[in-house]
Design goal:
The complex is a heterodimer. Chain A contains 2 helices and 18 strands. By secondary structure, chain A is mainly beta. The two termini of chain A are 31 Å apart. Chain B contains 5 helices and 7 strands; from the N terminus they run H-E-E-H-E-E-H-H-E-H-E-E. By secondary structure, chain B is of the alpha/beta class. In chain B, 38% of the residues lie in helices and 19% in strands. The chains are: A mainly beta, B alpha/beta. At the A-B interface, strand 1, strand 2, strand 4 and strand 5 of A face helix 2 and helix 4 of B.
Amino acid sequence: MGRELTASPVATGRRVVPVMGLAVAFGLSACLAVAAEPASKVKIFGHLSQAYGRSDRGSIQSATESGTTDLGNIAVQLRWEISPRDTAVIQLSHERRADDIFSPQQDELEIDWAFYQRRIGENTTIKVGRLNVPLGIYNEIRDVGTLLPFFNLPISFYAGVLSSAETVDGIAVSHTFAARSDWDLEADFYYGGWDTVQQQLSPEVDFGLRNLDARAEDGLGVQLWLNTPIHGLRLGAGGLTWLLDGPLSPAGTKERWDSYHLSLDLAVDRWMLRSEFRRWRFEQDFGGFLNLGSSLPAIAEREGFYVQAGVWVTPKIGLFGQFEAATLDNDLGLPPEGDFHEDLGLSVTYRFRHDLVARVEYHRSDTRFPLDEAGPAPRAVEVGWLIAALSVSF
Amino acid sequence: MLSLTLALLMALPGPAPGEGFTVVAHPETQFSSVTRGELSKIFLGRLRTWSDGTPAVPIDQAPERAVRQRFSRAVLGRSVVMVEVYWKRMIFSGRGVPPDEVENDRRVLEFVRQRPGAVGYIDAATQPAGVRTLALED
């Protein structure tokens, strides 16, 4: 089931050119304004993960029944510190995900981020361009294998590109309230749009699901983090709303998506406990999804949560466990409804250094997500799957 | 009388007692002490200025240095490895980069003497020549 890696030109995306132009214009004006500041610096960072995934039934979260190494990612980040207040960042990435209904295959090198950032006063920053979205604990670092307890993020919360946002072409404002207090509050507000997909049942394509290009517009989000006097303990909350404009939406209409979430992030000394809950409410045209040829609009709701706990039993060996679950409902009573996904995972991480990590993880899922020849399972089935990965960052 | 003398001695600015390092700042800083929480936020990139508005410029030491490990535990509340993991998270979320690092106490003192707003730490056995020492408060 593997696909060949191909060398391709950098994808521009539909909206990235004007956004990049705006970011460059801001950057140039900042250069002129700060000519007298200390010398600027350019720094390069990057990360790389390569994994092997195998399942005992169908394809699930990029683990396939026959086993695959078509599973990994690479990113290179260029950070130009124009002045103490002005920074320009560009990050290019490439990702391989075997067969994954949540993350459509990426065949090209993509512009992950490209933004200009200006610090205003002590506690406020503004970013313009293609920005990574601050949403929950992991969204901004979702592919950085050296920082994650498991290779994949919990789909019950992060959900992939289909019902969330990894990046946004737009603007973000960040501010820290009570920055000198033990109880400071970090707030991120962002606005913009991003490329996404709509899915349609299509028996003639692999696994019966076709991805159609769509666009999320007027995305408006907030992420709040309350830091506490306990080192490593913070509490989060946030929300995101957007309009989905795609070929499956009835002509002239856009589907409204709303989500909110809560987070607990505790990483003290050798111990880690993380948990997040997210709830979505969205409009979906089941006529388009089921390829009925007529409109069948519905309001759907989805909930998901996960809990992760772990300990570094030695400075190099970490043991982590994870449980996640998701439900899905709609007001028409159409399938799929009810319990949608459960997963119990265990991982063993060996940290050669802070920037070189090997991990083996095993999951047992009771889920509708595995793909076989008939597409997503009509009823939840049990699937066992494992991933072995090596990750490096620099 | 003895207890009064001890109390007065403890109130004087100086090295963090028993912690094996001395916090040093630019000689013209108006401060004689810094709280552990404020210093932690400065070294973790969460505070960019001193309370008088002067830009704070932290300078770190190489990860393998014993004084870095002592400072990391005592002020940042975590091991050097966990601090490096923290900074990887900041880098790959696009939020910031770690302070510059130098290889020894002498380089720290040179840097701190030259940069207004600079703050660093040196081994408690090293003479803090030409800089201001800051007492560490809880």
